């Protein structure tokens, strides 16, 4: 469980991305679905499922530069949409890409197109890094400046608009015959601090969901949380149907914001949906490149599942999970000029109640 000192950031679905626009997002964009956006000089291919060899679908893209680091940093998560592969770690892939500001300038030199009058500016990203409290400053131009942008990336007098330059860096602009996986409808992700949520008059919906859960399980959260030392008869009466007290704690925690699709807290504590293996720390392998241990960075939440739908209404392809915990290299190792993303690790937990629907 998270400690009181940990400040988790919550990702929420914030409107559909208009696919009619040309290159509506960049690697600076936090988003669900769509196609991943590559960083300059980084060649990003769709990975394949280790279980069935099918090309994976892009699930989320998270722009998450680290404090005091000179690198732009984006993590992309992929998953297999075949039902036989649901809930299995081997059917997920996590790729981390980084680049310097100088890489952007050299890659976009001579390739940018000046924005026309009245052209809509792409939605800016949010800085997920530790202690980041600048969530965007609105200016008269309509652009949103993020904490990760420096004056050199936002000044207009000496250099072309970087947001316009970055529009040409989408993976879809790379002429590559690679096979792509299913494409989910894209949505922007907005970010809030978990501490912004409280049990007050504005949280009626969250309280209603918690009450529905308690009625369905036949006991209150307080009873479920305090049944360990009771007699066997009382335990049988108040135990949740899924038989997992960890799931009860999970539901209680997210009841403050049931709509959350992502939780971010690098080096923080993950929120397990079911009891993890006793050797979970040994299950997470060290970085395959530098050998450093991996640390928890963010996790995908159950509310995301209903948003992962492809455009074809006749297709039954989807991604099912309880929660997906993403672990990344603690030192975030990167060789300047590298053209390949670093592979990280995803620990997948299935929904404990999912077996009730099969």
TrEMBL record:
Superkingdom to which the source organism belongs: Eukaryota
GO BP annotations listed: apoptotic process
Compositionally biased region (Acidic residues): 132-142
Stretches for region Disordered: 132-159
GO cellular component, one term: cytoplasm
Ranges of biased composition (kind: Polar residues): 143-156
Pfam families per record: PDCD2_C
Domain Programmed cell death protein 2 C-terminal, residue spans: 244-349
InterPro entries registered for this protein in UniProt: PDCD2-like_regulator, PDCD2_C
Protein name: Programmed cell death protein 2-like
This protein's encoding gene: pdcd2l
């Amino acid at each position: 469980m998270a400690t009181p000192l940990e400040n988790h950031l919550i990702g929420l679905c914030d409107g559909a991305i208009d696919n009619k626009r040309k290159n509506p997002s960049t690697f600076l964009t936090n988003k669900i679905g769509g196609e991943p956006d590559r960083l300059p000089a980084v060649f990003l291919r769709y990975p394949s499922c280790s279980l069935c060899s099918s090309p994976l679908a892009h699930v989320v893209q998270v722009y998450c530069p680290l404090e005091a680091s000179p690198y732009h940093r984006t993590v992309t998560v992929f998953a297999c949409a075949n039902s036989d592969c649901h809930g299995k770690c081997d059917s997920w892939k996590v790729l981390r890409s980084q680049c310097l500001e100088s890489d952007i300038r050299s890659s976009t030199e001579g390739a940018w197109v000046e924005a026309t009058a009245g052209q809509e500016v792409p939605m800016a990203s949010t800085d997920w890094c530790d202690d980041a409290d600048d969530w965007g400053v609105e200016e008269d131009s309509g652009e949103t400046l993020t904490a990760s942008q420096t004056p050199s990336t936002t000044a207009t007098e000496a250099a072309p608009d970087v947001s316009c330059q970055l529009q040409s860096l989408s993976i879809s602009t790379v002429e590559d015959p690679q096979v792509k996986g299913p494409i989910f409808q894209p949505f922007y992700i907005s970010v809030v601090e978990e501490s912004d949520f409280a049990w007050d008059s504005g949280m009626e919906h969250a309280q209603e969901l918690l009450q529905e859960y308690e009625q369905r399980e036949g006991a209150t959260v307080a009873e479920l949380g305090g049944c360990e030392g009771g007699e066997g008869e009382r335990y049988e009466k108040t135990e949740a149907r899924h038989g997992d007290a960890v799931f009860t704690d999970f539901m209680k925690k997210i009841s403050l914001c049931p709509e959350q699709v992502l939780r971010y807290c690098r080096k923080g504590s993950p929120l397990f949906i079911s009891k993890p293996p006793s050797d979970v720390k040994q299950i997470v392998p060290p970085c395959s490149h530098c050998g450093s241990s991996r640390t928890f960075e963010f996790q995908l939440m159950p509310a995301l599942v209903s948003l992962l739908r492809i455009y074809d209404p006749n297709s039954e392809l989807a991604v099912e999970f309880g929660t997906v915990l993403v672990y990344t290299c603690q030192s975030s190792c990167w060789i300047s000029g590298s053209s390949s993303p670093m592979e990280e690790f995803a620990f997948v937990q299935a929904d404990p109640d999912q077996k009730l629907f099969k």
